[in-house]
Structure formats: C-alpha cells, structure tokens
Amino acid sequence: MIHQKRRQELLSRLSKGAVVIVSTNSEQKRNSDVCYPFRPDSNFWYLTGFEEPDAIAVFSEKNYSVFLRPKDETKEIWNGLRLGVDLAPKKLLADQAFDIDKFFEKIHSLINNKSVIYFDAPGNGGWKDNSSTNIHNHKINSIYESVLHPLNPHISEMRLIKDKNEVKNMQKAANLAADAHLKAMKLSQPGLFEYHITAGFDSNFRKRNSEHAYPPIVASGENACILHYTENSKELKDGDLILIDAGCEINGYASDITRTFPINGKFTDAQKEIYEIVLDAQRAAIASIKPGASSNLPHEVASEIITKGLIKLEIMKTPNDLSKFYMHNTGHWLGLDVHDVGSKLVENKFREFISGMVTTVEPGIYIRKDDRIDSKYWGIGIRIEDDVLVTESGNHVLSEKAIKDIDAIEHFMSEA
Ligand code: GLY
Ligand code: MN
Ligand code: MN
Q1: How far is the CA of 379 from the centre of ligand 2 (A)?
Q2: Which run of H or of E encompasses 249?
Q3: Is any ligand 1 atom within 6 A of the Cβ of residue 229?
Q4: What residues contact 89, with CB distance under 8 A and at least 6 apart?
C-alpha cells in the first residue's frame, strides 16, 4: 500500500501524461561465477517494495506494469525462488506483469505520443547493462523519439522527507549500530587487531538480520587520518585511539555512526584536548538543527569551533588552514542510501531544514605528522558522528544511545 501511495504522490508532482520508468540493479559479479550480495536500487525499492534483481516498473495515472524475471525451475533450484510473472500483479498491486526480456516489445503499448517519459539511465549495476547504460538510454530514446525527463530530482524530494514508518526503521538501525559501538568499546584492548573489532560489528549486525550499510572504517592510531580507511588489518596499540565509522541497514534504511575512543580505555591529555574540540563542535552543530534553519548551519557552527580550538592549541595559525585538519563536510542526508538523495542547494541557496529530514552530524579533526606541530598531537584522528532527525520542535538524535562524553566512555570501558 505504502508503495502505491508513493507512486501516486510521485505522479502528482510530474507533468500531465507522465509515464515513469524505473529499474533496479542486476546482480554484480565478484569473481568467476560468484556474485556480491544483492541490494535493490533504492529508488526502485522505494516505489515498488520489490527486492529481486532485474526488474523494471512502468507506471502512469492509467497503468502500473512490472517487468521481471520469469519463473525458471533450474535457476530456482540453484539460486532461489522468483516471484514470477503470474503472481506479480497480485503481490505488487500491478495491473499487469511481463517477462523482463519482453520490455522493448511491450513498452510500446504503455506509451503514446502524448506521454511525458521520466527515466534515469541506470547507474553502475543497472538493469542488464552494466557497462553501457548509454545504450539503454539510447534505445529508449530512439524508440519514442521523445526527450526523457530526469526522474531523480522528483524522487529525491520525496525521499528527503521521511514518514513515520521510515523513521521507525531508521531508529532501529541507529539503535542496533549504537549497541554495536558500545560492544566495540568493551571489546577493545591492546594486542587485538582492527579486524577483531570489525568482526564484532559483522556479528552484531548479522545476528539481528541486518547488514553493514557501507564498508566499516575501523582505524586505530594514525590510520584514523585516512578518511576512507577500510583495510581494518592493523594491531591495536596501547595508548592509541581507535576511530570506528560503522552503521547498518534495517529494511533498507541506514544508520551511520562514528565513535572514537582510547584502545586501553583511558584518553591521554593530548587526545582529550582534541576530542573536546570535536565534541563541542558536534554538540553545537546538533543544537543548530531545527525547522527553518539553514542546512549549512551545522557546518558553519562546527567549522568555527574547530578553527578556534586548533588556533588556541597552536596547531594552526590562521582559519585558512582549517581544511588541512578538517577536510570534509559536517553532514549529509541519510535514508535508504547512506549518502542519501536530496540536494543541499535550492536555487543556489542552502535549503532549510524541514521536519522529517534526517542528516548526519560528523565533525572531525585529523592531525598527520608535521614538524610544525607539537609531536604529542601527531597521528590523532577523531570524528564523532550521529544521525539526527529534524522534528517539529527541533531535532532528535537517533543514535543517542552511543555514549560520547569522555567521562562516560572511560567509566563504561573500565566496567567489567
Ligand atoms: N560512513 C560514511 C560517512 O560518514 O559519510
Ligand atoms: Mn556520514
Ligand atoms: Mn560515517
């Protein structure tokens, strides 16, 4: 039902005569005859709820048709059951269903000269055409001799505002990931390797039938200064920090949490100095989030606090040097995709927060070896990341169960 409502809502935002064509992914080869675990295309999933690979939905005010893989006894014995063409209309609330290989044959009957077609060429992994999405696009173009209108901007506007059910899923994903971060704090000790900590996340997510929403970053010591470090292979050293950026998916909805804490449970003075700047920046950035506030305000607020803090510690001399130590933005939208859809700009101005949006807030400081900086700070990389829902009255931190105060972390890690 929810998917039907979404299709109707989408059509109400498009031109008269709109026909939407939206496809999901194909399975992606990993090596030989081994595929990566399949994950549906987010737009397709949002509009249909259908989770099999190789499918296309075509819908207008008059008709909803689905193209999907036909039943195949041998393939189903080897690889798993398929919904199939006969059962698809009832299950997906469609008017009709066809074998996906009949797409270019049947699509004529679903479109006429007055149709305004909304379609995005599939990205990497798109339907049946992994390497040449342009051919796919071209094929559709040449058949209808019409200009294709981009669909993404319209779906993105819808996906940007989460309804109650989506928020429920995101709260569950945040709770599960927060719990896994707490367990990692308990597990951590010198002599283990980063992959032991990673394995804790794998296990905690899988035990609740969840998956990582993105490759986890488990970065001890100076590895934390590599923003997308995913080797997760080094030994945990006494006296170092560990930065963990890990989140999971519940019914497709992501959490995205980062915590940084001392491997041995006790911050050094230098680590505390940097951590406190990041935490102050993060708390102030979160406090700035409410309906009507600029979506760039958290970044402005966090950048100012980090700038002042680093100048005070004589780690940098002028605000112009900030990007050497803080080189990413303070947040991104979160939803079905970890870097979720929705532009930050509307008509070249930062859009305002609206109740129902979910953003991350994730300031950080990364100090690589540099002879101009006191060596006690070398190799410190700290990021603190929470998932924040904009509410009518301000905001709610979905990931609040993951502790982040220095005292709270040290106390928690010292408990048996
Ligand atoms: N985990 C990716 C990010 O924080 O944006
Ligand atoms: Mn993030
Ligand atoms: Mn993250």
Answers
A1: 21
A2: strand 248-250
A3: no
A4: 66, 95, 96, 97
Q: Look at ligand 1, atom 5, and give the residue with the nearest C-alpha.
A: 339
- For ligand 1, pick from 229, 245, 327, 340 the residue to mutate: most ligand atoms within 8 Å of CB: 245
- pLDDT digits over 207-242, tens only? 999 999 999 999 999 999 999 999 999 999 999 999
Domain pair 2-158 / 161-414, same fold:
no
**pLDDT tens-digit series, residues 145-182:** 556 789 999 999 999 999 999 999 999 999 999 999 99
- Going by alpha carbons, the residue nearest to atom 3 of ligand 1 is 256
CATH for 2-158 is 3.40.350.10
Where do the structural domains in the chain lie, given as residue ranges?
Answer: 2-158, 161-414
Question: Which residues in 177-228 belong to E strands, given as ranges?
Answer: 211-212, 217-220
Q: Is 211 a catalytic residue?
A: no
pLDDT band at 131 (very low <50, low <70, confident <90, very high): very low
For residues 197 and 158, the answer to whether their CB atoms sit within 8 Å is: no
Ligand 1, atom 4, lies closest to the CA of: 256
CATH architecture for residues 161-414? Alpha-Beta Complex (3.90)
Ligand 2 centroid to residue 245 C-alpha, Å: 8
End-to-end CA distance of the chain: 48
